[in-house]
Amino acid sequence: MHRLLLPFTEGIDASAIDYALTIAHRAHGTLVVVSYLRTVPKKSGKLAYPRAGALEQSQDFMASLRYKADCRHVHVEIIELYSQDIPGSVQQLAHKYECDAVMVFTRNGKAVLLSNSEAQALIQNQAIPLFMVRLMTHRPIKSKVKDWLAYAASFKKAQPARSHSALAAQGVLAVPQEHSQLEQVVADSTTL
Questions:
Q1: Which DSSP string do the residues of 67-78 spell out, in sequence order?
Q2: What domains appear along the chain, each with residue ranges and CATH number?
């Protein structure tokens, strides 16, 4: 059974949550979710409590994730922690909970569910395996409709078989034949 760690500090993203749950479900694994609340030391040396908005967002994230996990019958372990050093804490928890990898999501070159600096710190530290997921960009509905109409119109014309390079140019991924079970789950999930 695989264990994947999903850290969260900011910016609830439904597609990232759905993707993480799908990977955990297909791997017959457990998603260990950690919602972090940043604490910053005051000049007096005492720790400041997180702002009220961060507490609300953390609660909303955990409720959304738990609901979706229950609907999909995915086993999750949800933890809420206060921390000054989130990347360091992620590394410690990954080892403590024996996680196979830490999931880090990006979209358009920016981190999703984490701040850019936190994601960058995790990427730079090679102590733990990362499961990097690049989410598709959100496109306006008008653009999607235009693409769909062009696709539908293409059926009227005879289409020659497409090569791997033509598919790659369109963003379709070719999956190598030899890979681990977790990599197979990821490859199967590229169709989301």
A1: HHHHHHT-EEEE
A2: 3-140 (3.40.50.620)
Query: Could you give the CA distance from residue 47 to residue 50 in angstroms, rounded to a whole number?
Result: 9
CA distances to 87, 89, 120, 122, 123 from 126, rounded to whole Å, are 12, 15, 11, 8, 7
The closest alpha carbon to 171, from 119, 141, 135, belongs to 135
Dump pLDDT digits (tens) for 120-129. 999 998 788 9
Cβ(19)–Cβ(189) under 8 Å? yes
pLDDT tens track for 141-176: 666 677 777 777 776 554 555 545 554 455 444 444
Record the pTM: 0.70
Query: Residue 93 in contact with residue 5, Cβ under 8 Å?
Result: yes
Cβ pair 79, 96 in contact under 8 A: no
Place of tokens 């922690």: 81
Q: Determine the residue type at 186.
A: V
Side-chain-side CA neighbours of residue 80 (13 Å): 15
